[in-house]
Structure formats: C-alpha cells, structure tokens
Amino acid sequence: MRASPTSESPATEARKWPVTVTVILGTVAVVLNATVVNVAIPPIMADFGMSQMAAQWLATGFMAAMTATMLASARVMERFGQRRTFEISLWVFLAACVLAAASPSGGVMIAARLLQGATAGMIQPLALVLIFDVFPDRERGKALGLYGMGVVLAPALGPAVGGVLIDWLSWRAVYLPGIPFGLAALWGARRYLVEHRSDAPLAFDWLGLLLLAVGLAALLLGLSMLAGTGGWALPGIVVGLALLAGFVWRAATAEAPLIQLQVFAYPRFALASLLAMAYGAGLYGSTYLVPLLMQGVQQFSATATGLAMMPAGLSLTVIFPLAGRLADRLPAHRLMLVGCAGFAFGMLGLAFSRPDTGFLALVLWIAFGRMALGIMMPALNIDGLRSLPAAHTQQGSGVINFARQLGGALGVNLLALLLESRIGARLEGAVDLHRVYDRAGGGRDVISALTKGFSETFMVLGLVFVLAMIAAGWMGYLHAKLRKDSAGLRR
C-alpha cells in the first residue's frame, strides 16, 4: 500500500487547513440536509397526501442507506482514491438534492433521500481519514475540534433554517441550503485533495453489502406495512431477517468482512454497541417525532418548530467539551447512567405535553433530552473502544458508528409504526394525518387521538432508555470486576 502523505512535509503543511475546511464544508452539506428536512415532513405529507408511515421513509431511508454505505467507505476509498470518492459522492449528493426539491411525487423524493443517505455514508468517514492524513498526531485534536463544531452546528441550525424556508417559500426549498456548501467543497477538493489510493486494495465483500442493504430495506419495509392492510408485511419481515442473518453468517466466514465479529467477544464493547443503538434510536427518533408533535398537536408553524429545536442543538456545543473532560475523570458508566436517565426524563416531559403546552416548555424538554445524550456520547465511545485491544480499535470505531446508525433507522421506523397504531386505535383505524398538517382535518377528536398517541410513543422511547440503564450498570460492574482482578494480580 502506498504510504500516506506525511503530515510533516512542507507541501502537506500548506494543505492541512484548506483540506480541513474542504471536508468540513462537505460534511456540513450532508449533515445539514439530514436535519433540515425534519420540519418539512408535515407539509410534505399535506402536499402529497402521504401517510405518516410513508413519510417516515424520508428519515428512515436516509439513515438506512447511510448505515450500509458507511461500512463500504474504506474499501471504496482504497479502490478509487480519496479525492475521486469525495468528488463523486458530492456530485451524486447535489444531484439528489435537486431531484428531491423538484420531486413530482413522494416516491421520487424517497428515492432521492436514499441517494443522499448513501453519499452521506461515504463522505463522513472519509472526512476523518483526510484530517488524519494531513495533521501530525499532536495537532489532530485541534483540527477535530474545529470539525466537530461544524458537525454539531449544522444540525443545530438546520431545523430553524428549514422552518423559515418553508414559511417564506415552500418545503421544496429545504433541500437547497446544502448545495452552496457542496459546491464550495467540490472546488476545494479539486484544488487541495490528492489522489491517494491503495496499490493493493483488499477484496471488497460485495455479497455482505448486498445482504445488509437488501435485508435492512426488506425488514424496514415489512415493518412499515404493519400499519396498513397490505399482506406483504410478514413476508417482508421474514425475508429481511433471513438476509440479515445471512449478513452475520457472511461476516463470520468471509476473509475480509464488512464487520469483524470478534469485537463482540469483549463484553463491555458488546454492551457499548447495544447502548449505541439505543442512542441512535433516541437521537433520530426524537428528532423525527418532535416536528410532528409541534405542528400536529400544538399547531405551531414550521418556523416556530425549527426555532424550538435550535437551542437543543446549540447546547451540544457546550455539553460535548464538558462531557469529554468528565469522561477522562469519571467512570464512564456513571455518565452513561446520567445520560440515559436524563433523556428518559426529557421524553417523559414531552409525553405529558398537551395542545396548550407553551413554546418555552417544549424548548426546555427538547433541550434537556438532547443535553443528556450529549453527556453520554463521549463516555460511550471511549469506554467501548478502551475495552478492545489496540489491533481492533479501528474496527470497533466503525462498528459503534454502524450500531448508532442502525439504531436510528430501526428506531424511527418502529416509533413511527407505534405512533400510527396508537392514533389509529383511537380513530377506528382511519388515520389520515396529512389532513391534520394541511389544517383540513384537525378536529377535536383527531387532536385528542394525536395527543394521546404522541404521549404513549414518547413514553415508550423513554422506557427504552430506562432499560438501557441496565446495560450501563452492567458495564460498570464489568469495569469494577476488571479493576479488582488487576489489583489482585499486582498483589
């Protein structure tokens, strides 16, 4: 394999900050697009007459596609080179943005979201690789701090920007803010990135990727059909589970699998992966549900909804550095217990919201839950990876990211299914939520059913994190046992 460009050479020294800015711009483009769309789901439902289960594919499809391609990104970079992978991914992403904005139907828009998610899964891992290539070890923390600020601020500001665009222009405009960032990143890539690739790339497990992508799609599609009367729900779920079982078999037998199952032989890492799935379900599930709650139950505008979500994102710019310092000083399981309990409490507050709940109260509950997730994130990554041998650290990092995205995709899908079923149970199955969001069917009975449906859904999401506290406590027990055994050996 060709050596990476040394970060001490004069040429690399001159490129390191332009490269960093370039990858930040590319990442902001895809991350901004991932979050800015959430506040647009209610008006999209109203315009296209989409059911809530169909509309959830705008979020679930994006995350499922990103989950699959994230595992493939390293091999694609080896074969096609860093610059070419970055450029092709961004061009496809920008084309998907235009397609989504001009979509004539919900199906076309979902297809565009799948393309956006697939390219986002390529760009985000590549950004970190490029930063590590051009910075020496002593300066990587500073570069990653700047990168992290961009990654955090984009989703924080995304819903507010989306809300304003919807109310001033149209929901179609929410797909456009990422385009200027993407074009700027393409200019920077052509000017500053080098065509670094492997001379002897490892064999890529195409069969494993196919089993994962098709299996995940079939499972999610089957679950979404449970809310309707379609007879393909059970076959879809069975086929999806069978293909995912095939993916696990492939990972256990292939020479170069997408995931090395050996990392799950370490109990603390296995528990960390389980917590990462819960984290993804909480982060993406709440981000999906909150706009629907505020525009359906409280009947707030898209702008008000976006503004309500912005403080939660901005608070992470304070919480992440603090949580990182605490993770270096306190046992990780304590921070994870605090984070799980705090998020569950925040979801309980949203569960008790009513049509007359004030704007400020909703802002506080949303921010409280998001800050709780921020507290547990560094501890989760650090303790999970710390439990692995150094040879497995890189693979472990990819697996934890995969687990978080998988939890997000499954979480949004299952929470949407739960919400649909609970509302339908109170409206005798006649769920026509798109009429609520175009203000044509928001009668008292419908709003009451909506309120109770959201209440039960947020309670279930909170309960998931109460159960996650068991895993966090178990990690603490294993850590204490390891320290006790180590102390006994020293004596």
Automatic annotation (TrEMBL):
All copies of domain Major facilitator superfamily (MFS) profile, residue ranges: 19-480
Coiled coil: none
Keyword Transport: yes
GO cellular component: plasma membrane
Gene3D superfamilies listed in its UniProt record: MFS general substrate transporter like domains, Multidrug resistance protein D
PROSITE patterns linked: MFS (PS50850)
SUPFAM superfamilies: MFS general substrate transporter (SSF103473)
Record's bilayer topology term: Multi-pass membrane protein
Localization per record: Cell membrane
Residues that span the membrane, as ranges: 21-41, 53-74, 86-104, 110-132, 144-166, 172-190, 202-226, 232-249, 269-290, 302-323, 335-353, 359-380, 401-419, 458-480
InterPro entries for this protein: EmrB-like (IPR004638), MFS (IPR011701), MFS_dom (IPR020846), MFS_trans_sf (IPR036259)
Keywords: Cell membrane, Membrane, Transmembrane, Transmembrane helix, Transport
GO molecular function, one term: transmembrane transporter activity
Family: Belongs to the major facilitator superfamily. EmrB family.
Name of protein: Multidrug MFS transporter
Organism: Salinisphaera orenii MK-B5
